[in-house]
Inverse folding.
């Protein structure tokens, strides 16, 4: 194991994050605060409780997931796309590092950053609404699993993308709709029956549901199923990354 | 083991179908400076990229210090430093950070003393805290050399190291390369500047259209290059060489009004005096004469044009 290399990549990425600290933290915190003001305070005060949880508190896990997903994808995709774009990737490709080590460095850093952000947003939410976490260990598990899985997904997008449009296309056209339709702001049970079935094809539903369970102990989907689906998506991403490095897809000629 | 790099029957067909390398075999000796010459698009960068792991070979194999560059890539790559042709740097990093990063990436524990030594040798020490985007092109090139040397490689690839570098700096870089060789590093450089190969290399290889067409000791090449020619413009054209002059190996050129005599520059120049006397005796008069020497450049051009 080339520990020095993993450390070098990880620290390099964290230093890059550090240089853009303000924009990488201020923007998500600001938008989350806006969500709370609009959905939590303005609209939420007129909403019924869902499963015995006030609406303001109910949307906290969904909002954190929203940030976690988008940040994991954008951090990781940019981290690998940028050196590919500028050409500095040559150094990583010519170094004695294995695919596992490369991915650990980049994905580890991207996941770390989005987990830190998620925790900051959790703290911000605490300023607006009351938050109880019934299963903190499960909450952290879901946080880490989701961050890692979607950082891997972002890594794949970063390698696949051959232009800045593609880099933004997937988060914009796929991930944002999936998160909004994934029950971030409502319970799947509130949908008409047909749409409830459709929703079960949305992987984000399982993430939000599992994450919400760790807060309130209630969920749209069984926690075991949530966890399994998250793991399934994780393994699909791992398989694609393995294939990428085996073939050199978009990395080597 | 005498050969530190051994390329055997290497071919590369790019996805476009273009065959950039055709059955290339080449051995690089431990501790030498090897210059790879060739026109644009000959396949120099492709060859280096395969050895360094940036391009997948289509056929054949490469051993670096006895390790297969594909199957045992970790062992092979940890011995190799690469300075690519294109200047690519992380604009917002400092010189110090980027060179330290390279060392870690190649699996070596931090060693600030070593990095300081490299930066000083490359006259970059006073720039160590500068962001890369504030450096000039020549400085960036040196930063890339520093990155390649950060992990103390045994083999260093320099893909056109002096492109866009001014004359003075070029001499400094040659000096750095010589010192590296002194310390036991094997160096493979590509260049378009013949004088650079002449100045630096122990051996010279010429690649053209994906094939190695010549590999020779520089000294040997220089000896060939040492061949001089004496051309005599005759007053009257002649049909044939007069008898008695065969031993000089003369050649009749032009419209029969030019005599060309090839001789060794190192050898005693007595040959010329004898020849001129013999010509006078044979009644051949000349109105002008000139001597010329083939340069490596001419050899290179004629080698390449022979193949086209
Ligand atoms: N990714 C690629 N896809 C298709 N063809 C390529 C690719 N990279 C290089 N080539 C072709 O392979 C040939 C060799 O290119 P290479 O870069 O190895 O040449 P070179 O000898 O380094 O030239 P130069 O002196 O200009 O740097 C060229 O004809 C080039 O167009
Ligand atoms: Mg080249």
């Amino acid at each position: 194991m080339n520990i020095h290399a993993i450390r070098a990549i990880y620290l390099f990425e964290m230093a890059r994050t550090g240089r853009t600290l303000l924009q990488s933290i201020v923007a998500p915190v600001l938008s989350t605060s806006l969500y709370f003001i609009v959905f939590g305070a303005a609209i939420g005060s007129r909403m019924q409780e869902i499963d015995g949880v006030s609406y303001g508190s109910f949307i906290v896990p969904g909002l954190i997931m929203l940030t976690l997903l988008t940040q994991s994808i954008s951090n990781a995709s940019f981290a690998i796309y940028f050196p590919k774009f500028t050409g500095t990737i040559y150094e990583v490709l010519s170094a004695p590092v294995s695919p596992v080590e490369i991915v650990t460095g980049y994905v580890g850093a991207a996941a770390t950053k989005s987990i830190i952000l998620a925790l900051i947003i959790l703290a911000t939410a605490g300023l607006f609404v009351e938050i109880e976490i019934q299963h903190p260990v499960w909450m952290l598990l879901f946080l880490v699993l989701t961050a890692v899985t979607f950082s891997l997904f972002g890594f794949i997008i970063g390698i696949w993308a051959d232009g800045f449009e593609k880099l933004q296309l997937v988060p914009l056209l796929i991930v944002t709709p999936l998160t909004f339709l994934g029950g971030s702001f409502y319970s799947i049970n509130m949908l008409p029956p047909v749409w409830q079935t459709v929703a079960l094809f949305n992987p984000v539903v399982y993430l939000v549901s599992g994450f919400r369970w760790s807060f309130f102990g209630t969920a749209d989907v069984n926690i075991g199923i949530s966890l399994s689906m998250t793991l399934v998506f994780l393994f699909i991403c791992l398989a694609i990354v393995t294939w990428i490095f085996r073939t050199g897809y978009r990395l080597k000629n | 083991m005498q050969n530190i790099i051994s390329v055997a029957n290497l071919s590369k067909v790019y996805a476009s179908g273009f065959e950039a390398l055709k059955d290339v075999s080449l051995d690089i000796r431990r501790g030498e400076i090897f210059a790879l010459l060739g026109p644009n698009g000959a396949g120099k960068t492709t060859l280096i990229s395969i050895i360094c792991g940036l391009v997948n070979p289509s056929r054949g194999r490469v051993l670096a210090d006895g390790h297969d560059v594909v199957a045992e890539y970790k062992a092979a790559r940890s011995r190799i430093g690469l300075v690519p042709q294109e200047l690519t740097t992380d604009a917002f990093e400092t010189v110090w950070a980027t060179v330290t990063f390279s060392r870690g990436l190649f699996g070596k524990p931090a060693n600030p003393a070593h990095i300081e030594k490299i930066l000083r040798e490359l006259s970059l020490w006073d720039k160590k805290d500068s962001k890369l985007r504030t450096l000039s092109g020549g400085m960036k090139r040196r930063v890339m050399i520093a990155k390649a040397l950060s992990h103390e490689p045994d083999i260093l690839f320099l893909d056109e190291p002096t492109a866009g570098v001014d004359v003075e700096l070029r001499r400094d870089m040659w000096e750095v390369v010589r010192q590296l060789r002194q310390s036991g590093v094997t160096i493979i450089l590509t260049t378009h500047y013949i004088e650079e190969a002449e100045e630096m290399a122990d051996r010279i290889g010429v690649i053209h259209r994906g094939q190695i067409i010549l590999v020779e000791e520089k000294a040997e090449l220089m000896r060939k290059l040492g061949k001089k020619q004496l051309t005599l413009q005759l007053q009257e054209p002649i049909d044939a060489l007069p008898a008695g002059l065969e031993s000089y190996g003369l050649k009749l050129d032009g419209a029969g009004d030019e005599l060309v005599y090839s001789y060794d520059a190192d050898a005693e120049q007595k040959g010329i005096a004898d020849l001129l006397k013999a010509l006078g005796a044979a009644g051949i008069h000349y109105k002008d004469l000139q001597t010329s020497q083939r340069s490596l450049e001419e050899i290179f051009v004629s080698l390449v044009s022979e193949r086209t």
